[in-house]
């Protein structure tokens, strides 16, 4: 969340950020509640000072005049009432603060939506086919590696079953990506719960704003993770990291669960968008003075997966109107899918600054004896399935309807073609 002090001292800065994001937040209400809270605290402080003064007077004289006793009683009752009002105001204020998005970094291009994102680089040449490339849903059914009908029979729309070599290929992609990031990019692998407490969703910025898009078990009050970003954000909750700890690099595979209410009616064919999908997540806890360098490194780490697989891709810098709620700066990586005829987002890498760390209270000491500071948190897909699976299937399809396996995956698949 944003610091209340920042909103109080720079309300126009925050309003300008909201305007650039084409978003809204209850800034006036926050400022009003903040003023009300400070007035309440000032009255409480004055009453406590008076109570201390009266106590000293009684202590000096040893006498307890009825009027002072009555005054003390009134002061005690008033303090109790004010404390309850302060508590209620704090709760209202905190709830409103949780609804304010992060402030875009000054380098982020101003724009209204994804149409104004900026392409910063591209890699690879789109393959030229001497036959009409098929979309993955046709390839998958012809090769009997994707079963849409049984996915719907089991769980309903936006579910599918990967079968045989299709399931094996997905597993190979996950193992390949994990090994690359662990062995060559310096990340520590984590295996995480797929369900988390409510405060973890609040800490990552998913609650309260995106409650409608999350799956929730009401009986145990556990929330299914929409991405491994959520448990990783909370890994060091309420910790003070000692000097020399940062940066911390984590990588984790999880299944991810989303209702996809915000994309109703979109991408209904194939496996591009489902309620359950797999993802390898990159995550960093960094120092404020180097977090934007760490973001560029993270993007390169994600790009390396695309390069190793030999699939053309492009990197987009997101404009203010397309930034995620918690992000201050983001890049998307999109792979080319010739069968679908579109660019598929396989990664979004973001620097959230201290926005999540304030919610989770993760701090560090820059050096021994130094004042604690909030860490900066960064997250990115490294990469997201099944879109990488789609890109592999469609880019490596052959004239006879088979799919060649990228060289980088051979040690993981132990087969070179699906036919």
Structure description:
The mean pLDDT is 96. This protein has helices spanning 4-9, 11-21, 27-61, 66-97, 136-142, 148-155, 165-183, 198-204, 229-233, 291-309, 355-360, 387-395, 410-413, and strands spanning 118-123, 146-147, 161-162, 188-190, 195-197, 216-217, 222-224, 240-241, 248-257, 276-286, 313-317, 329-337, 342-351, 363-364, 373-374, 376-384, 403-404, 417-418. The protein has 419 residues and is of the alpha+beta class. It has 13 helices and 18 strands. The strands form five sheets. The chain has an eight-stranded mixed sheet with strand order 1-11-12-13-16-10-9-4. The chain has a three-stranded antiparallel sheet with strand order 5-7-6. It has a three-stranded mixed sheet with strand order 8-14-15, with no helix packed on it. The chain is elongated, with a radius of gyration of 27 Å.
Write a concise synopsis of the structure shown:
With 419 residues, this protein is of the alpha+beta class. Helix content is 40%, strand content 20%.
């Amino acid at each position: 969340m944003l610091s209340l002090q920042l909103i109080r001292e720079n309300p126009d800065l925050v309003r300008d950020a909201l305007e650039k994001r084409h978003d809204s937040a209850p800034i006036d209400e926050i400022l009003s509640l903040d003023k009300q809270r400070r007035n309440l605290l000032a009255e409480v402080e004055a009453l406590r000072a008076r109570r201390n003064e009266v106590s000293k007077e009684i202590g000096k004289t040893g006498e307890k005049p009825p009027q002072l006793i009555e005054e003390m009683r009134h002061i005690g009752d008033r303090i109790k009432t004010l404390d309850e009002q302060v508590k209620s105001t704090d709760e209202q204020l905190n709830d409103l603060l949780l609804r304010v998005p992060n402030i875009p970094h000054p380098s982020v291009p101003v724009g209204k939506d994804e149409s104004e994102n900026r392409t910063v680089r591209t890699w690879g040449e789109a393959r030229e086919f001497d036959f009409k490339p098929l979309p993955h849903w046709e390839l998958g059914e012809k090769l009997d590696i994707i079963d849409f009908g049984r996915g719907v029979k089991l769980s309903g729309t936006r579910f599918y079953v990967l079968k045989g070599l299709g399931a094996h290929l997905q597993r190979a992609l996950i193992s390949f990506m994990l090994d690359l990031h662990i062995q060559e990019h310096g990340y520590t692998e984590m295996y995480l719960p797929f369900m988390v407490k409510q405060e973890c969703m609040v800490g990552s910025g998913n609650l309260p704003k995106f409650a409608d898009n999350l799956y929730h078990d009401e009986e145990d009050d556990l929330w299914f993770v929409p991405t491994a970003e959520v448990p990783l954000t909370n890994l060091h909750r309420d910790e003070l990291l000692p000097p020399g700890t940062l940066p911390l690099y984590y990588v984790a595979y999880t299944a991810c669960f989303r209702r996809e209410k915000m994309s109703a009616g979109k991408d209904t064919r194939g496996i591009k968008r489902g309620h359950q999908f797999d993802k390898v997540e990159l995550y960093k806890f960094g120092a404020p003075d180097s977090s934007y360098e760490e973001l560029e490194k993270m993007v390169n780490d994600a790009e390396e997966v695309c390069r190793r697989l030999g699939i053309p891709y492009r990197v987009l810098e997101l404009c203010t109107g397309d930034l995620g709620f918690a992000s201050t700066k983001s890049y998307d990586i999109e792979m080319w899918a010739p069968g679908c005829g579109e660019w598929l987002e396989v990664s979004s890498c973001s620097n959230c600054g201290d926005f999540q760390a304030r919610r989770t209270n993760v701090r560090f000491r820059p050096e021994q004896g130094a004042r604690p500071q909030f860490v900066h948190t960064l997250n990115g897909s490294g990469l997201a399935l099944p879109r990488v699976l789609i890109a592999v299937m469609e880019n490596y399809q052959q004239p006879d309807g088979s799919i060649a396996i990228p060289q980088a995956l051979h040690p993981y698949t132990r087969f070179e073609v699906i036919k």
